[in-house]
């Protein structure tokens, strides 16, 4: 971005801190909202700002008083209503980056890699420059993405305004969110339109998509899974935790559920079928069939290696469930648990069978949700074992699964109010911006 702040490149703006007039940071820029017009340069109307609590809100550019290196200064108060994109609006990072455009001189096509917005004398912000990389024909006339980079005036670009059917490739968009945790990426996907959400979900690998699906509201989960090719959907279900896969399959019609189970690997499908047999709000319906299960003769060093597995949640990594063979659920007789803290205090060559905590009573599979909750709370546990009538370990219920069922169904979609300290005052709605020109959208989300 330029030192004067009159021209800003969006790729550099993304991630920039936003400050209020007294110097307190209120969030970070995640995207820029523009209006693509049939004639004239596209007009930038606001910033998508992520505030504490991972909420994304709209900041009109009429309320931006300065854009300097590494910071955006706003005036007035932020409207803390969740940002909702309107049909006539376009997100630069989310939709324009990597979009294929035609060059107005007829010399070929190019991919958009960055966009510059520039403040005019009347206070409006217009798209003035587009950084593109030209396509070069390869063998057979196919286009190769490696080409010459150029900074062009907006007038030199044709076809920037496109229909939803001609949306950008998802690769560059995913690169913007590569380091996000699954829950944060799920929040990003939830805010997208249905078409864009499906494009990004399809571009994710199976493991990453499985992690993200586990964090999405049920409606989004069903829409994405139903939109995938059937064998791909089965692969993603296999990558999910069995209890999460069972919860998702429960939301599908019976014929679709049966089809996907038939496409899954038999062993993976077996665990999911077992979980589908239990009522939702019981220990059996809540449990996972894949906790850390080991025999009593296992050395502490080996047990610690098991709990270090990256795919384990912190709750399931907090304890080892010790059983007689077989070690696959349903196991042999359940003997007790060994807590992670105990493992860390004892010599690594010691067998875990000598460290058993046998005071934690396991739950039957039909134990209702409130009994599961009380057991976790009574013993300050992050997970609790579930056994059958012969005391064979069936699985474990972790505290995160219990919370999912105790919270309202729409909890993933409902943002907690950001504390007034974020803006220094209570949230307000809209209002006209103080910048000259009063660009459209100054308070339109009120």
UniProtKB/TrEMBL annotation:
<dbReference type="Pfam" id="PF00571">
    <property type="entry name" value="CBS"/>
</dbReference>
<protein>
    <submittedName>
        <fullName>Magnesium transporter</fullName>
    </submittedName>
</protein>
<dbReference type="InterPro" id="IPR006669">
    <property type="entry name" value="MgtE_transporter"/>
</dbReference>
<dbReference type="InterPro" id="IPR006668">
    <property type="entry name" value="Mg_transptr_MgtE_intracell_dom"/>
</dbReference>
<feature type="domain" description="CBS">
    <location>
        <begin position="287"/>
        <end position="355"/>
    </location>
</feature>
<dbReference type="InterPro" id="IPR011033">
    <property type="entry name" value="PRC_barrel-like_sf"/>
</dbReference>
<keyword id="KW-0129">CBS domain</keyword>
<dbReference type="Pfam" id="PF03448">
    <property type="entry name" value="MgtE_N"/>
</dbReference>
<dbReference type="InterPro" id="IPR058838">
    <property type="entry name" value="SH3_actinomycetes"/>
</dbReference>
<dbReference type="Pfam" id="PF26205">
    <property type="entry name" value="SH3_actinomycetes"/>
</dbReference>
<dbReference type="InterPro" id="IPR038076">
    <property type="entry name" value="MgtE_N_sf"/>
</dbReference>
<feature type="region of interest" description="Disordered">
    <location>
        <begin position="423"/>
        <end position="446"/>
    </location>
</feature>
<dbReference type="GO" id="GO:0016020">
    <property type="term" value="C:membrane"/>
</dbReference>
<feature type="compositionally biased region" description="Gly residues">
    <location>
        <begin position="430"/>
        <end position="446"/>
    </location>
</feature>
<dbReference type="InterPro" id="IPR046342">
    <property type="entry name" value="CBS_dom_sf"/>
</dbReference>
<dbReference type="InterPro" id="IPR000644">
    <property type="entry name" value="CBS_dom"/>
</dbReference>
<feature type="domain" description="CBS">
    <location>
        <begin position="356"/>
        <end position="416"/>
    </location>
</feature>
<dbReference type="GO" id="GO:0015095">
    <property type="term" value="F:magnesium ion transmembrane transporter activity"/>
</dbReference>
């Amino acid at each position: 971005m330029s030192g004067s702040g009159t021209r800003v490149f969006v790729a550099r703006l993304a991630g920039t801190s936003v400050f209020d007039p007294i110097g307190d940071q209120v969030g970070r820029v995640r995207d820029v909202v523009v209006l693509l017009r049939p004639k004239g340069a596209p007009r930038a109307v606001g910033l998508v700002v992520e505030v504490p609590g991972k909420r994304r809100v709209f900041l009109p550019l009429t309320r931006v008083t300065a854009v300097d290196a590494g910071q955006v200064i706003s005036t007035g108060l932020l409207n803390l209503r969740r940002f909702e994109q309107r049909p006539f609006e376009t997100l630069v990072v989310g939709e324009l980056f990597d979009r294929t455009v035609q060059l107005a001189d007829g010399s070929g096509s190019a991919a958009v890699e960055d966009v510059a917005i520039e403040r005019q004398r009347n206070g409006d912000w217009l798209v003035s420059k587009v950084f593109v990389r030209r396509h070069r024909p390869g063998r057979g006339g196919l286009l190769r993405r490696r080409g010459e980079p150029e900074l062009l005036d907006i007038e030199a670009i044709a076809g920037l305004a496109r229909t939803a059917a001609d949306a950008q490739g998802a690769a560059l968009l995913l690169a913007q969110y590569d380091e996000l945790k699954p829950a944060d990426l799920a929040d990003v996907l939830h805010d997208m339109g249905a078409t864009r959400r499906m494009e990004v979900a399809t571009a994710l690998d199976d493991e990453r998509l499985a992690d993200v699906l586990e964090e999405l509201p049920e409606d989004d989960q069903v829409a994405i899974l139903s939109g995938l090719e059937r064998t791909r959907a089965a692969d993603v279900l296999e990558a999910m935790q069995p209890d999460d896969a069972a919860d998702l399959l429960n939301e599908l019609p019976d014929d679709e559920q049966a089809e996907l189970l038939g496409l899954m690997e038999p062993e993976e499908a077996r665990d999911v079928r077992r979980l589908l047999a239990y009522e939702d709000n019981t220990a059996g319906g809540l449990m996972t069939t894949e906790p850390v299960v080991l025999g009593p003769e296992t050395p502490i060093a080996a047990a610690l290696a098991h709990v270090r597995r990256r795919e384990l949640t912190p709750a399931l990594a907090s304890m080892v469930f010790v059983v007689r063979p077989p070690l696959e659920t349903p196991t042999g007789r359940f003997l007790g648990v060994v807590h992670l803290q105990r493992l860390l205090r004892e010599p690594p060559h010691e067998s875990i069978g000598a460290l058993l905590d046998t005071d934690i009573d396991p739950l039957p599979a039909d134990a209702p949700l409130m009994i599961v909750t009380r057991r976790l709370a009574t013993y300050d546990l992050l997970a609790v074992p579930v056994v059958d009538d012969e005391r064979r370990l069936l699985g474990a219920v972790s505290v995160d699964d219990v919370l999912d069922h105790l919270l309202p169904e729409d909890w993933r979609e409902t943002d907690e109010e950001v504390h007034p300290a974020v803006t220094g005052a209570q949230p307000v709605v809209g209002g006209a911006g103080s910048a000259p020109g009063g660009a459209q959208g100054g308070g339109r989300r009120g």
